[in-house]
Amino acid sequence: MSSNNNSIKMRLLWENGKRCAICGKKIRSFDELTVDHIVPRSKGGKHTIGNCQLAHKSCNSLKNDKMPEEYERALKYNKRRIILMRVRRGILFWYN
Ligand SMILES: [Zn+2]
């Protein structure tokens, strides 16, 4: 089986459902869905099923190319930003 981006995405969808591995919330549309590398590719992470997880595009761009532990640290400083983002998303949800 080839390990191109789409087959990894489909396998993750099949195994985990449409849930964001970063914020833990459901991913409501396919447009929001992206494959995040747990160890960023820029830090030597491989594009394999074990190093990939599904995430919202917005969550993934917050995580950027941080290592998981760096991200945890950044999260503490970023919490307000993330709460704001969730509030905004919640508002968008209610207006839909
Ligand atoms: Zn998310």
Record the SSE blueprint.
Blueprint: H1 5-16, E1 33-37, E2 52-56, H2 57-63, H3 68-95
Antiparallel strand pairs: 1-2
The chain binds zinc ion.
Describe what is shown at a glance.
The chain is flat and about 35 Å long. The chain is 49% helix and 10% strand. The longest helix is centred in the last third of the chain and has 28 residues, at 68-95.
**Per CATH, which architecture?**
Orthogonal Bundle
Query: Any ligands, ions or cofactors bound here, and which?
Result: zinc ion
Q: Provide the residue-averaged pLDDT.
A: 81
Global shape: flat
CATH fold descriptor: DNA Binding (I), subunit A
Euclidean distance between termini CA atoms: 39 Å
Spans of at least 5 consecutive residues with low confidence: none
Description:
The chain is mainly alpha-helical. It has one domain (5-95): DNA Binding (I), subunit A (Orthogonal Bundle), CATH 1.10.30. 49% of the residues lie in helices and 10% in strands. It is built from three helices and two strands. The protein has helices at 5-16, 57-63, 68-95; strands at 33-37, 52-56. A two-stranded antiparallel ribbon has the order 1-2. It is flat and about 35 Å long. It starts with a helix and ends with a helix. The model has no long low-confidence stretch (mean pLDDT 81). The structure holds zinc ion (ZN). The site of zinc ion has 7 residues, from β2.
